[in-house]
Specification:
The structure is a single chain. The chain is an all-beta fold. Helices cover 0% and strands 58% of the residues. It contains no helices and eleven strands. It has strands spanning 3-7, 10-12, 18-25, 30-39, 46-51, 57-59, 67-72, 77-82, 91-102, 105-110, 114-118. Strands 2, 4, 5, 6, 9, 10 and 11 form a seven-stranded mixed β-sheet that branches. The chain has a four-stranded antiparallel β-sheet with strand order 1-3-8-7, with no helix packed on it. It is elongated, with a radius of gyration of 14 Å. The termini are far apart.
Amino acid sequence: QVQLMESGGGVVQPGGSLRLSCAASGSFFTINTMGWYRQAPGKQRELVASFTSSYTTNYADSVKGRFTISRDNAQNTEYLQMNTLKPEDTAVYYCNAEICTEWYSCLEYWGQGTQVTVSS
């Protein structure tokens, strides 16, 4: 079976940095798209950063210039480098990917989430 597993969350002071990782495990042919979302209490889940199928990047306005999404295709791992963190970045962060277990069978997968808390 295919799974996405996030790691790297924690508590950090404003201005600090964290790097989140999301590893895909299982048997599959391709990962078409990958991205990061977050959800704060009382708010809708929002897109933070993503790769499109053409490997271009997309960032939320609130994180542009501070966050960087990257991926290691050989290791089937996605990263989110978060710099200059603000209290407003506090949320549960989820990784997301469209994964094809067969060329004709592609589904959207979500990780379980990792908590990021930015507080002094």
